[in-house]
Design brief:
The complex is a heterodimer of chains A (84) and B (171).
Chain A lengths: L11 H30 L11 H27 L5
Helix pairs in contact in A: 1-2
Chain B lengths: L32 H8 L4 H26 L10 H41 L5 H14 L5 H25 L1
Helix pairs in contact in B: 2-3, 3-4, 4-5
The chains are: A mainly alpha (84), B mainly alpha (171).
Main location (chain B): mitochondrion
Organism (chain B): Stephania japonica
Keywords (chain B): Membrane, Mitochondrion, Mitochondrion inner membrane, Transmembrane, Transmembrane helix
């Protein structure tokens, strides 16, 4: 997320609104992350019900990369305020 | 277990839908840290290879017992029945021990190689089995020189792939 130059929050509603937005953003990111890594790492033909080791390490790597990409894109969007 | 995507039941028939027959829908429950750690034990390469080695040792023990029992003593006519029995028992013990060692080593090497290959590639394939079979066959026949190692590699890799396909089809 962009770095907040925090204006003083006057009323509770603004804070609640921001928290709601933050919560929605996090839920959206969780859903997208799960969907992306599931589509990428798990084969379509499910041969067994447990995750095998290859899928496990694939999911580990997928989540780690997704998180890094999110942070990196957030930083790039936050720092470059004037449009490119 | 993987997280359940949704917990809704399929719709019941519209004929008798007077009262709710569906079981109560449970909320989505993400696995706890203990559950994840408990499943993670099986993802550890060292644990897997040790367990495989122990299983291989057990298998080798039984095979050695069986094969040792079939072995007949050389001087069969001169020994009494009790001597024959003692000889056969000793033979069985010796062969089962050496066979157990061989199979245990084979199990450890195969399991470790397959685990490392699968973790590195992050894919569940038969290529992992081929690599692991080649490494095991090469390691077991490395004493005979490079050519023997190559033949051992190819032979054991083929054998492992066949066994894997056989086991998969059985499921």
């Amino acid at each position: 997320m962009a770095s907040n130059s925090a204006p003083p929050m006057l009323d509770k509603e603004q804070i609640m609104g921001m928290m709601e937005k933050e919560m929605e953003y996090r839920v959206e990111m969780f859903n997208k992350l799960t969907q992306t890594c599931f589509d990428k790492c798990i084969e379509k033909r499910h041969k067994e019900s447990e995750l095998n080791m290859g899928e496990n390490s694939c999911i580990d790597r997928c989540v780690s990369k997704y998180w890094q990409v999110t942070n990196l894109v957030g930083q790039l969007l936050g720092s470059n305020r004037p449009p490119m | 277990m993987a997280s359940s995507p949704d917990s809704s039941e399929p719709t019941p028939s519209p004929s008798n839908s007077t009262q709710a027959e569906k079981p109560p829908i449970e909320p989505i429950r993400l696995p706890t840290v203990e559950e994840i750690k408990g499943q993670d034990i099986w993802n550890n390469c060292a644990v897997r290879s040790v367990v495989s080695g122990v299983m291989g040792g057990g298998l080798g023990l039984f095979m050695g017992l069986f094969l040792g029992a079939l072995d007949n003593p050389l001087m069969q006519e001169e020994m009494s029945a009790k001597q024959q029995f003692i000889y056969t028992a000793k033979q069985m013990g010796r062969r089962s021990f050496s066979s157990a060692k061989t199979f245990a080593v084979m199990g450890v090497i195969f399991s470790a190689a397959e685990c490392v290959a699968e973790k590195a590639r992050a894919k569940h394939d038969t290529t992992n089995t081929v690599v692991a079979g080649c490494v095991t066959g090469g390691a077991l026949s490395a004493k005979g020189g490079p050519k023997a190692a190559c033949m051992g590699c190819a032979g054991f890799a083929t054998f492992s792939v066949l066994i894997e396909k056989f086991l998969d089809r059985h499921d």
